[in-house]
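dumping these here so i dont lose them again. two proteins, back to back, each one seq then structure tokens. dont judge the mess
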Amino acid sequence: MSALIAEDEIFHEAELVWLEDIAALDYVRQSLDRLPTRRGRPAYHRDGRMVGYALLGPQAKPSRSSGTFRRRVFWLLPHDRDTDPEGLYATGAPAEAVDPRTLAPGRKGRKTERSEGGPLSPAVGELGDTLPL
């Protein structure tokens, strides 16, 4: 979950790859998955769809016990706001959701008024569209 992702766990990220245009998404869910490689498109085994993933730099080391790499995967479920705008997340967002516009390699991202389903207030617009954690 995004609240549990610390920036020291993702500082080896070199790039974020988006499989969809994130400009149309209010939020994406993010998780740290154990994957066999630093790079390349990971297999996806959740409901819904993968919308992006992180690539790691060559300095990233695998786990000593499993030989896997912890990489972020960004995804959405069928009942998320992008496909069901009047559904469960018409307002609010899942705990692991962040505004994709606030993500960058090595930066975990934030919730915003947009990701929480509300209209942008003038004050938040002036502050850069982010909410305090």
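---- next one ----
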Amino acid sequence: MASGTIRYWAAAKAAAGTAEEHYEAATLADALDGARERHTGRPDFARVLMRCSFLVDGDPVGKREHDAVRLSEGGTVEVLPPFAGGAA
């Protein structure tokens, strides 16, 4: 399990109600599941996440399965909504 930071941009930041938060997770899927759990009181968060693209330590995740994307200790996950460079 790795510790790091999730950074939210544009609509993802608004939906999360924060610019960044800590993760404790082995994979991107685990980190995003944890974020969804932390933000259950924010109804737009899960919907916005479904449209986002992700960078892990600066590398685009693209179409890779999120459970196959390993996170590194001290790493960074960038959450990008469509108009901030995320998925169309």
